[in-house]
Amino acid sequence: MGDVAAGSDRDVTSTASAARQSRRDLLRGAATASLALAVGLGPRDARAQDASPAAGPPIKVAFVYVGPVGDLGWTYAHDQGRLFLSQQMPNVETVYQENVPENPGDAERVIRGFAQDGAKVVFTTSFGYMEPTISVAEDFPDTVFVHISGYKTAENVGTGFGKIEEPRYVSGLIAGRMSTANRLGYVAAFPIPEVIRGINAFALGVRAANPAATVEVIWTNTWFDPPKERAAAEALLDRGADVLAQHQDSAGIAQAAQDRGRLAVGYNADMAPLAPQAVLTGPIWTWGGFYVQTVQQVQAGSWEAGQYWGGWKDGTVDLAPIGPMVPEAVRAEAEAEIARFKAGEKDIFTIFTGPILDQAGAEKVPAGTALTAEQLLGTDMNWFVQGVEGDPAP
Q: According to the 3-state scheme, what is the secondary structure of the chain?
Protein backbone atom coordinates (compact mmCIF):
# COMPACT_ATOMS: atom_id res chain seq x y z
CA MET A 1 0.00 0.00 0.00
CA GLY A 2 1.59 3.31 0.84
CA ASP A 3 1.69 6.69 2.54
CA VAL A 4 -0.84 9.21 1.33
CA ALA A 5 -1.31 12.83 2.30
CA ALA A 6 -4.97 13.76 2.64
CA GLY A 7 -6.61 15.21 -0.43
CA SER A 8 -7.86 18.73 -0.90
CA ASP A 9 -11.32 17.87 0.43
CA ARG A 10 -9.71 17.72 3.87
CA ASP A 11 -6.96 20.30 3.33
CA VAL A 12 -7.10 22.46 6.43
CA THR A 13 -4.79 25.43 6.93
CA SER A 14 -3.99 26.58 10.44
CA THR A 15 -4.93 30.23 10.73
CA ALA A 16 -5.22 30.97 14.43
CA SER A 17 -2.55 30.79 17.07
CA ALA A 18 -5.34 30.35 19.60
CA ALA A 19 -5.99 26.96 18.09
CA ARG A 20 -2.50 25.87 19.07
CA GLN A 21 -2.99 27.11 22.62
CA SER A 22 -5.37 24.34 23.54
CA ARG A 23 -2.98 21.61 22.47
CA ARG A 24 -2.16 19.29 25.32
CA ASP A 25 -3.90 21.63 27.83
CA LEU A 26 -3.51 18.71 30.15
CA LEU A 27 -6.32 17.79 32.45
CA ARG A 28 -7.57 21.26 33.28
CA GLY A 29 -10.90 20.75 34.90
CA ALA A 30 -10.54 16.96 34.83
CA ALA A 31 -11.72 15.00 37.82
CA THR A 32 -9.26 13.05 39.94
CA ALA A 33 -10.99 9.88 38.83
CA SER A 34 -10.06 10.63 35.24
CA LEU A 35 -6.48 11.24 36.28
CA ALA A 36 -6.30 7.89 37.99
CA LEU A 37 -7.28 6.19 34.76
CA ALA A 38 -4.52 7.95 32.89
CA VAL A 39 -1.78 6.17 34.78
CA GLY A 40 -2.82 2.65 33.88
CA LEU A 41 -0.80 0.94 31.21
CA GLY A 42 -4.00 -0.66 30.02
CA PRO A 43 -3.92 -3.58 27.63
CA ARG A 44 -0.91 -2.56 25.61
CA ASP A 45 2.77 -1.87 26.15
CA ALA A 46 4.75 0.32 23.78
CA ARG A 47 7.58 -1.54 22.10
CA ALA A 48 10.94 -0.15 21.22
CA GLN A 49 11.07 0.49 17.50
CA ASP A 50 12.52 -2.86 16.56
CA ALA A 51 9.38 -4.77 15.63
CA SER A 52 9.66 -7.20 12.73
CA PRO A 53 7.48 -6.73 9.64
CA ALA A 54 3.98 -8.00 10.26
CA ALA A 55 1.36 -9.40 7.94
CA GLY A 56 -2.39 -9.25 8.32
CA PRO A 57 -5.46 -8.01 6.51
CA PRO A 58 -5.12 -4.68 4.66
CA ILE A 59 -6.00 -1.73 6.84
CA LYS A 60 -6.09 2.05 6.48
CA VAL A 61 -4.65 4.11 9.35
CA ALA A 62 -5.10 7.89 9.56
CA PHE A 63 -3.15 10.57 11.44
CA VAL A 64 -4.34 14.06 12.31
CA TYR A 65 -1.49 16.55 12.89
CA VAL A 66 -1.55 19.99 14.50
CA GLY A 67 1.57 21.25 12.71
CA PRO A 68 3.59 20.66 9.56
CA VAL A 69 5.39 17.34 9.15
CA GLY A 70 8.60 19.26 8.48
CA ASP A 71 8.64 21.19 11.76
CA LEU A 72 11.38 18.93 13.16
CA GLY A 73 9.27 19.00 16.30
CA TRP A 74 6.09 17.45 17.70
CA THR A 75 4.43 16.69 14.37
CA TYR A 76 7.67 15.52 12.77
CA ALA A 77 8.13 13.01 15.58
CA HIS A 78 4.64 11.62 15.06
CA ASP A 79 5.16 11.41 11.33
CA GLN A 80 8.35 9.45 11.86
CA GLY A 81 6.20 7.03 13.84
CA ARG A 82 3.77 6.82 10.93
CA LEU A 83 6.59 6.05 8.53
CA PHE A 84 7.90 3.38 10.88
CA LEU A 85 4.43 1.83 10.93
CA SER A 86 4.40 1.74 7.12
CA GLN A 87 7.84 0.13 7.02
CA GLN A 88 6.99 -2.52 9.56
CA MET A 89 3.51 -3.30 8.23
CA PRO A 90 3.53 -3.08 4.43
CA ASN A 91 -0.14 -4.12 4.30
CA VAL A 92 -1.06 -0.86 6.06
CA GLU A 93 -2.03 2.25 4.11
CA THR A 94 -1.36 5.41 6.07
CA VAL A 95 -2.97 8.76 5.36
CA TYR A 96 -2.49 12.03 7.19
CA GLN A 97 -3.51 15.67 7.34
CA GLU A 98 -1.14 18.29 8.70
CA ASN A 99 -1.85 21.81 10.03
CA VAL A 100 -5.28 20.94 11.43
CA PRO A 101 -6.48 23.65 13.85
CA GLU A 102 -7.76 22.51 17.21
CA ASN A 103 -11.09 24.27 16.98
CA PRO A 104 -14.02 21.81 17.07
CA GLY A 105 -15.27 22.54 13.55
CA ASP A 106 -12.05 21.94 11.63
CA ALA A 107 -10.78 19.11 13.80
CA GLU A 108 -14.06 17.19 13.75
CA ARG A 109 -14.39 17.64 9.99
CA VAL A 110 -10.96 16.10 9.36
CA ILE A 111 -11.41 13.25 11.84
CA ARG A 112 -14.86 12.45 10.48
CA GLY A 113 -13.58 12.57 6.92
CA PHE A 114 -10.96 9.94 7.64
CA ALA A 115 -13.51 7.67 9.30
CA GLN A 116 -15.93 8.08 6.39
CA ASP A 117 -13.13 7.23 3.95
CA GLY A 118 -12.62 3.86 5.60
CA ALA A 119 -9.80 4.38 8.09
CA LYS A 120 -10.05 1.62 10.70
CA VAL A 121 -7.65 3.37 13.09
CA VAL A 122 -7.43 7.15 13.54
CA PHE A 123 -4.65 8.70 15.64
CA THR A 124 -5.42 12.28 16.70
CA THR A 125 -2.13 13.70 17.88
CA SER A 126 -2.84 16.87 19.86
CA PHE A 127 -4.71 17.62 23.06
CA GLY A 128 -7.19 19.97 21.43
CA TYR A 129 -8.55 17.08 19.36
CA MET A 130 -9.89 15.26 22.41
CA GLU A 131 -13.51 16.44 22.31
CA PRO A 132 -13.81 16.16 18.51
CA THR A 133 -12.37 12.64 18.70
CA ILE A 134 -14.92 11.58 21.31
CA SER A 135 -17.72 13.17 19.28
CA VAL A 136 -16.81 11.48 15.98
CA ALA A 137 -16.16 8.13 17.65
CA GLU A 138 -19.81 7.92 18.73
CA ASP A 139 -20.85 7.76 15.06
CA PHE A 140 -18.22 5.17 14.02
CA PRO A 141 -18.32 2.34 16.57
CA ASP A 142 -16.31 0.01 14.30
CA THR A 143 -13.39 2.44 14.01
CA VAL A 144 -10.67 2.65 16.66
CA PHE A 145 -9.60 6.15 17.69
CA VAL A 146 -6.46 6.84 19.73
CA HIS A 147 -6.01 10.32 21.13
CA ILE A 148 -2.50 11.43 22.06
CA SER A 149 -2.10 13.18 25.43
CA GLY A 150 -5.75 13.36 26.48
CA TYR A 151 -7.65 11.62 29.25
CA LYS A 152 -11.10 10.78 27.87
CA THR A 153 -11.89 7.30 26.62
CA ALA A 154 -14.87 5.44 25.20
CA GLU A 155 -15.60 1.94 23.93
CA ASN A 156 -13.60 2.68 20.78
CA VAL A 157 -11.35 5.51 22.04
CA GLY A 158 -8.04 5.05 23.83
CA THR A 159 -5.28 7.48 24.74
CA GLY A 160 -1.49 7.48 24.59
CA PHE A 161 1.29 9.62 26.04
CA GLY A 162 4.83 9.30 27.36
CA LYS A 163 7.03 10.17 30.32
CA ILE A 164 9.18 12.64 28.44
CA GLU A 165 10.33 13.98 31.81
CA GLU A 166 12.72 11.04 32.08
CA PRO A 167 14.99 12.14 29.21
CA ARG A 168 14.36 15.77 30.18
CA TYR A 169 16.00 15.02 33.53
CA VAL A 170 19.09 13.51 31.87
CA SER A 171 19.28 16.40 29.39
CA GLY A 172 19.24 18.72 32.40
CA LEU A 173 22.10 16.77 33.94
CA ILE A 174 24.15 17.30 30.77
CA ALA A 175 23.15 20.97 30.52
CA GLY A 176 24.06 21.59 34.15
CA ARG A 177 27.52 20.11 33.63
CA MET A 178 28.06 22.18 30.48
CA SER A 179 27.01 25.55 31.90
CA THR A 180 29.88 27.75 33.01
CA ALA A 181 27.72 30.78 33.74
CA ASN A 182 25.49 28.78 36.12
CA ARG A 183 22.59 30.40 34.32
CA LEU A 184 20.36 28.47 31.91
CA GLY A 185 17.24 29.52 30.02
CA TYR A 186 14.06 27.69 29.09
CA VAL A 187 11.65 28.78 26.36
CA ALA A 188 8.24 27.32 27.19
CA ALA A 189 4.93 27.24 25.38
CA PHE A 190 2.03 27.38 27.86
CA PRO A 191 1.85 27.16 31.68
CA ILE A 192 0.03 23.83 31.79
CA PRO A 193 0.92 20.73 33.84
CA GLU A 194 2.74 18.94 31.02
CA VAL A 195 5.06 21.88 30.42
CA ILE A 196 5.61 22.72 34.10
CA ARG A 197 6.39 19.07 34.79
CA GLY A 198 9.03 19.11 32.06
CA ILE A 199 10.63 22.32 33.29
CA ASN A 200 10.86 20.91 36.80
CA ALA A 201 12.35 17.61 35.63
CA PHE A 202 14.95 19.48 33.58
CA ALA A 203 15.79 21.80 36.48
CA LEU A 204 16.15 18.88 38.90
CA GLY A 205 18.66 17.35 36.50
CA VAL A 206 20.49 20.66 36.17
CA ARG A 207 20.70 21.12 39.93
CA ALA A 208 21.79 17.52 40.51
CA ALA A 209 24.82 18.29 38.35
CA ASN A 210 25.30 21.91 39.33
CA PRO A 211 23.58 23.03 42.56
CA ALA A 212 24.57 26.65 41.95
CA ALA A 213 22.77 26.85 38.60
CA THR A 214 19.44 28.55 37.94
CA VAL A 215 16.95 28.08 35.09
CA GLU A 216 15.01 31.12 33.87
CA VAL A 217 11.70 30.51 32.08
CA ILE A 218 10.08 32.66 29.41
CA TRP A 219 6.56 31.82 28.18
CA THR A 220 5.70 32.31 24.52
CA ASN A 221 2.03 31.23 24.50
CA THR A 222 2.52 29.38 21.25
CA TRP A 223 3.51 25.85 20.26
CA PHE A 224 5.06 26.62 16.90
CA ASP A 225 6.13 30.16 16.05
CA PRO A 226 9.84 30.19 15.14
CA PRO A 227 10.31 34.00 15.18
CA LYS A 228 8.60 34.36 18.56
CA GLU A 229 10.53 31.42 20.00
CA ARG A 230 13.79 32.85 18.73
CA ALA A 231 13.00 36.26 20.26
CA ALA A 232 12.42 34.63 23.64
CA ALA A 233 15.68 32.73 23.29
CA GLU A 234 17.59 35.89 22.48
CA ALA A 235 16.13 37.59 25.55
CA LEU A 236 17.42 34.77 27.73
CA LEU A 237 20.82 34.93 26.05
CA ASP A 238 20.92 38.69 26.62
CA ARG A 239 20.36 38.02 30.32
CA GLY A 240 23.36 35.74 30.53
CA ALA A 241 22.08 32.24 29.85
CA ASP A 242 24.76 30.05 28.29
CA VAL A 243 22.58 26.96 27.77
CA LEU A 244 18.98 27.03 26.51
CA ALA A 245 16.27 24.38 26.68
CA GLN A 246 12.76 24.36 25.28
CA HIS A 247 9.23 23.05 25.23
CA GLN A 248 8.56 24.35 21.71
CA ASP A 249 8.24 22.75 18.31
CA SER A 250 10.86 24.59 16.26
CA ALA A 251 14.64 24.72 16.22
CA GLY A 252 14.64 28.51 16.53
CA ILE A 253 15.91 28.37 20.11
CA ALA A 254 18.88 26.15 19.26
CA GLN A 255 19.70 28.28 16.22
CA ALA A 256 19.67 31.44 18.34
CA ALA A 257 22.06 29.78 20.78
CA GLN A 258 24.39 28.71 17.98
CA ASP A 259 24.47 32.21 16.53
CA ARG A 260 25.66 33.50 19.91
CA GLY A 261 28.20 30.75 20.46
CA ARG A 262 26.10 29.22 23.25
CA LEU A 263 24.62 25.76 23.79
CA ALA A 264 21.13 24.30 23.62
CA VAL A 265 18.97 21.29 24.39
CA GLY A 266 16.41 20.47 21.70
CA TYR A 267 13.03 18.76 21.95
CA ASN A 268 10.77 16.31 20.06
CA ALA A 269 13.39 15.14 17.58
CA ASP A 270 17.14 15.45 17.09
CA MET A 271 17.68 19.14 16.28
CA ALA A 272 21.45 18.85 15.85
CA PRO A 273 21.24 18.97 12.03
CA LEU A 274 19.85 22.51 12.26
CA ALA A 275 22.27 23.75 14.93
CA PRO A 276 25.18 21.29 15.07
CA GLN A 277 27.51 23.55 17.02
CA ALA A 278 24.97 24.21 19.77
CA VAL A 279 22.80 21.15 20.37
CA LEU A 280 23.99 19.05 23.28
CA THR A 281 21.15 16.53 22.97
CA GLY A 282 17.37 16.64 23.50
CA PRO A 283 14.41 14.62 24.76
CA ILE A 284 12.74 12.92 21.81
CA TRP A 285 9.61 10.91 21.09
CA THR A 286 9.66 7.47 19.45
CA TRP A 287 6.03 6.78 18.59
CA GLY A 288 6.55 4.00 16.04
CA GLY A 289 6.48 1.06 18.43
CA PHE A 290 3.25 2.25 20.02
CA TYR A 291 1.64 2.71 16.62
CA VAL A 292 2.69 -0.75 15.42
CA GLN A 293 1.48 -2.41 18.60
CA THR A 294 -1.88 -0.66 18.42
CA VAL A 295 -2.51 -1.51 14.77
CA GLN A 296 -1.45 -5.12 15.29
CA GLN A 297 -3.96 -5.43 18.12
CA VAL A 298 -6.72 -3.90 16.01
CA GLN A 299 -5.99 -6.36 13.21
CA ALA A 300 -6.00 -9.27 15.66
CA GLY A 301 -9.24 -8.15 17.26
CA SER A 302 -7.56 -7.87 20.67
CA TRP A 303 -7.46 -4.08 21.04
CA GLU A 304 -9.23 -2.66 24.06
CA ALA A 305 -9.69 0.96 25.03
CA GLY A 306 -7.13 1.99 27.63
CA GLN A 307 -4.84 4.83 28.62
CA TYR A 308 -1.16 4.36 27.90
CA TRP A 309 1.60 6.36 29.60
CA GLY A 310 4.91 4.92 28.46
CA GLY A 311 8.41 5.68 29.61
CA TRP A 312 12.01 5.14 28.62
CA LYS A 313 11.83 1.45 29.47
CA ASP A 314 8.96 1.04 26.99
CA GLY A 315 10.79 2.86 24.20
CA THR A 316 8.22 5.66 23.92
CA VAL A 317 10.73 8.37 24.87
CA ASP A 318 14.46 8.66 24.35
CA LEU A 319 17.37 11.07 24.23
CA ALA A 320 18.85 12.38 21.00
CA PRO A 321 22.54 11.61 20.36
CA ILE A 322 24.85 13.46 22.74
CA GLY A 323 26.85 16.08 20.87
CA PRO A 324 30.61 15.89 20.29
CA MET A 325 31.20 19.00 22.41
CA VAL A 326 30.21 17.07 25.55
CA PRO A 327 33.28 15.79 27.46
CA GLU A 328 33.66 12.04 27.85
CA ALA A 329 33.16 12.16 31.62
CA VAL A 330 29.83 13.95 31.24
CA ARG A 331 28.80 11.60 28.45
CA ALA A 332 29.61 8.58 30.61
CA GLU A 333 27.61 9.98 33.52
CA ALA A 334 24.61 10.58 31.27
CA GLU A 335 24.85 7.15 29.67
CA ALA A 336 24.90 5.52 33.11
CA GLU A 337 21.70 7.37 34.00
CA ILE A 338 20.13 6.40 30.68
CA ALA A 339 20.92 2.74 31.37
CA ARG A 340 19.15 2.96 34.73
CA PHE A 341 16.03 4.40 33.15
CA LYS A 342 15.99 1.83 30.38
CA ALA A 343 16.41 -0.97 32.90
CA GLY A 344 13.55 0.35 35.00
CA GLU A 345 15.81 1.17 37.94
CA LYS A 346 14.76 4.82 37.64
CA ASP A 347 11.56 6.38 36.37
CA ILE A 348 9.48 9.54 36.55
CA PHE A 349 8.58 8.80 40.16
CA THR A 350 12.28 8.58 41.07
CA ILE A 351 12.80 12.02 39.57
CA PHE A 352 10.01 13.47 41.71
CA THR A 353 11.04 11.83 45.00
CA GLY A 354 11.67 14.18 47.91
CA PRO A 355 12.99 16.18 49.42
CA ILE A 356 11.92 18.70 46.78
CA LEU A 357 11.52 22.40 47.55
CA ASP A 358 9.68 24.95 45.47
CA GLN A 359 11.28 28.14 44.21
CA ALA A 360 10.33 29.92 47.44
CA GLY A 361 12.04 27.25 49.55
CA ALA A 362 8.88 25.56 50.81
CA GLU A 363 8.91 21.77 50.97
CA LYS A 364 6.60 20.33 48.32
CA VAL A 365 7.71 16.69 48.43
CA PRO A 366 8.96 15.33 51.77
CA ALA A 367 12.02 13.12 51.95
CA GLY A 368 11.30 9.48 51.22
CA THR A 369 8.06 10.14 49.35
CA ALA A 370 7.32 10.58 45.68
CA LEU A 371 4.63 12.44 43.79
CA THR A 372 1.87 10.14 42.63
CA ALA A 373 0.83 9.72 39.03
CA GLU A 374 -2.35 11.67 39.77
CA GLN A 375 -0.31 14.54 41.16
CA LEU A 376 2.06 14.50 38.20
CA LEU A 377 -0.61 14.31 35.52
CA GLY A 378 -3.09 16.64 37.16
CA THR A 379 -3.09 20.28 38.12
CA ASP A 380 -1.34 19.78 41.47
CA MET A 381 2.02 20.68 39.94
CA ASN A 382 1.41 24.38 39.48
CA TRP A 383 4.73 25.32 41.03
CA PHE A 384 8.40 25.44 40.05
CA VAL A 385 11.19 23.62 41.87
CA GLN A 386 13.96 25.47 43.65
CA GLY A 387 16.37 27.07 41.22
CA VAL A 388 13.76 27.98 38.60
CA GLU A 389 13.18 31.67 37.94
CA GLY A 390 9.88 32.79 36.48
CA ASP A 391 6.17 32.60 37.18
CA PRO A 392 4.52 29.17 36.79
CA ALA A 393 1.13 30.86 36.41
CA PRO A 394 1.71 34.13 34.52
A: CCEEECCHHHCCCCCCHHHHHCCCCCCCCCCHHHHHHHCCCCCCCCCCCCCCCCCCCCEEEEEECCCCCCCCCHHHHHHHHHHHHHHHCCCEEEEEECCCCCCHHHHHHHHHHHHHCCCCEEEECCHHHHHHHHHHHHHCCCCEEEEECCCCCECCEEEEEECCHHHHHHHHHHHHHHCCCCEEEEEECCCCHHHHHHHHHHHHHHHHHCCCCEEEEEECCCCCCHHHHHHHHHHHHHCCCCEEEEECCCCHHHHHHHHCCCEEECCECCCHHHCCCCEEECEEECCHHHHHHHHHHHHHCCCCCCEEEECCCCCCEEECCCCCCCCHHHHHHHHHHHHHHHHCCCCHHHHCEECEEECCCCEEECECCECCHHHHHCCCCCCCECCEECCCCC
CATH code at 253?
Answer: 3.40.50.2300
Report pLDDT digits (tens) over 273-330. 999 999 999 999 999 999 999 999 999 999 999 999 999 999 999 999 999 999 999 9
What digits encode the pLDDT tens for the residues 236-251? 999 999 999 999 999 9
Same domain, residue pair 106 and 90: yes
Does residue 394 belong to any structural domain of this protein?
Answer: no
Mean pLDDT (10-residue bins), the chain, 394 residues = 40 34 38 33 35 66 94 92 96 96 94 98 94 98 95 94 97 98 97 92 98 98 92 98 96 97 96 97 97 96 94 96 98 98 96 97 97 88 97 91
CB atoms within 10 A of CB 285: 24
Structural domain boundaries, residue 94: 3-163+286-317
State the Cα–Cα distance between residues 50 and 303, nearest whole angstrom. 21
pTM above 0.90, yes or no: no
| Overall number of domains in the chain | 2
**Cβ–Cβ under 8 Å, residues 112 and 137:** no
